[in-house]
Amino acid sequence: MSLLEEKCGHWRSTLRRLNLIVCSRGRISSLLFAISLWMIRSLRNVGLRLCQSGLLRLSKELVTLSSNPLLKSPEISNAGKHLSAVEFHSVLQDAGKLEEKADPTSDKRVVLLDARNLYETRIGKFQTQNVETLDPEIRQYSDLPAWIDENTELLRGNNILMYCTGGIRCEMASAYIRSKGDGFENVFQLYGGIQRYLEQFPDGGFFKGKNFVFDHRVSVGSLDKDVLGNCLLCCSSFDDYSSRNRCKYCRMLVLVCDSCQKKNSSYVCELCQRNGKCIESVLAIEDENSEESKPSDVKTVSTSNEVKHPSQLSVVNGSRTTRKLRILCLHGFRQNASGFKGRTGSLAKKLKAFAELVFVDAPHELPFIYHPCSLDPDNDTASCLKPNPPKICSKKFAWLVGPDYQFSCDTEWKRADIPFNSLQYQQQTEGFDESVAYLKSVFSQAGPFDGILGFSQGAAMAALFCGLQVKLKQIDFRFVILCSGFAVNMTECVKGSINIPSLHIFGNDSGKDRQINSQASRHLASLFEDGCSVIIEHISGHIIPTQSPYIDTIKDFLRRFL
Prior knowledge:
alpha/beta
């Protein structure tokens, strides 16, 4: 018997005893009050014990507004004023007049703002001739703030009516709009959302189509049987979603009618189509285990046997579980994808519950050279090989190369002309444009990715991406993890100028990282905004530590993006 069942049984037996006392003494009100207090205290104790046992988890918010979890959320006390379903309906009937809810001037107008995702608005929305409905067409709720920032002129100075499925998303979104100050004061939200509105107006009122819901019903309609949605492929009227029909890139639900489902099995949503992705490239990467179907210039190695996308949710017994993050991993200089996967096996194992690591080779292939071992006992660098290196060795790659780099297809080992220099990474500054073009194709063909993890030179490459993310529109990610990183070609970046959420992992002054000086990694971390960065300094050298407490900090950082 569970703890909760045991408590419920105890409550029932206690209430039966109290019922006898109530009947015999007639002190109903005082006893009922005492019963309520006792039940509240007992329930609180049960909740505390369940949290301590790990069966319950406290959450700071029901929905996440910002994709940057390190930025402060708007004050919920500043949320827009609630309108009941009847009041909301009345405002739409008499558009432009909020009556006693505000003091609008004659030049102000009413605009409707739909706070839901694209796949929700495609099957139902509010429509009225006198009011403009703004559809942000976002893939996920955390994309809404960016849309608001880019479309402030559509909202400024107007009476903004917001709505969503049940009213929860409007609370935070309306507070975000009002936080912008002058011109954004008159923000109103539909209390109880579309669900409450349809309860008050069973015929649909001003809401046309179906209301998308996040349970087994998928959508709920009104007495009005009009179909608002259209098939993605043939554009015929259709509004019945199936969990099997999703975009091959972002895993967003798409509307595909029954006849088109029989003819096609791969779909690309309209948002991905706008970003230049097409069905041909989907078919090219659909079978990851087939060398013939995979593009020859992009080969990935993943910690998962199945491709999982960041918007894909696992379903267990009808309930949604936490999705996995997809993280693109960039190896260091003179490494490769398979080798880096092996080196990070412990990290992948400890993150497998909520992250999938995807590894890719860098575009610059390096020649087979070796440095003979130094007699210096303090020289334990990874580039020092035995005098007779193995005859068979996998290819090695780099993201950035030196100015004297020349590609050679020679597979024979050659002795280096100059001794190994631990500061060679400072001269490896060429080849960035080729690496950028290559990673664009990786994001296009194997993406999307939630974040990038870079190690050593891979971290330098990822940091360059962060500094140029605004210009690199084809490459979109939410966070970066830089391990033993350093700055290359980043002279234009100043302290705190990069505001992408970042986790910096490097050896401290006594950490004996003989490859990358701790000051170089510390300088790179300083280029990121303090409020967006987390720093881990360890004593384990040129590696990614996976022991406690370092792994706990890594997990805490990643959980913010789930």
